[in-house]
Amino acid sequence: MLVVSIGGSPSPRSRSGVLLEHSRQWLQERGVEVVSFQVRDFAAEDLLHARFDSPQVKHFQDVVAQADGLIVATPVYKASFSGALKTLLDLLPERALEHRIVLPIATGGSIAHMLAVDYALKPVLAALKAQETLHGIFADDSQISYGQGDTPAQLAPVLQERLLDSLQTFHLALARRPQAVAPGVLNERLISARWSI
């Protein structure tokens, strides 16, 4: 299984990034390959000028095309998700998320921003034809504390539990996804099948 994680924060220190890192570790412990992208790692010119021919953008598109699922995490600004994330998602082909499971994650200053996932982020994911977009997670900034030195970042117990539940649901959804059959194998199965009328 391959999962792409996309971080929408332009800041290197980000609460949504903390949730992505926890998610990456949990999935890798279960044998899932995770490839991570952050909006801040892309050249600003590629994003602002929608350079579809950029090697970095092409690599991003290729990895998404191979993915079974995506985790998309973003801070909430002005009741919506990150503009840099929207710009990056705009560089994906129209049906880029077809046959893929998506887990959206958002963080914000207060629970007043909690509907940003449903009313701002999910419609964009649906426009990219995500097969299934899970309920997702909204975390209040007070539920995530940054680590100091060797101390890792900490999640409030209630958030830790919600993240674990969402990751388990995501993992199960990935496992039940129909797997494509190679054309040669399908042809062989059809030829060797017993037919009755």
UniProtKB/TrEMBL annotation:
GO terms for biological process: alkanesulfonate catabolic process. GO terms for molecular function: FMN reductase [NAD(P)H] activity; oxidoreductase activity, acting on NAD(P)H, quinone or similar compound as acceptor. Residues 1-141 form the NADPH-dependent FMN reductase-like domain. Pfam families: FMN_red (PF03358). Keywords: Flavoprotein, FMN, Oxidoreductase. PANTHER family: FMN REDUCTASE (NADPH) (PTHR43408:SF1). Belongs to the SsuE family. NCBIfam families: FMN_reduc_SsuE, PRK10569.1. This is NAD(P)H-dependent FMN reductase. It comes from Pseudomonas cremoricolorata.
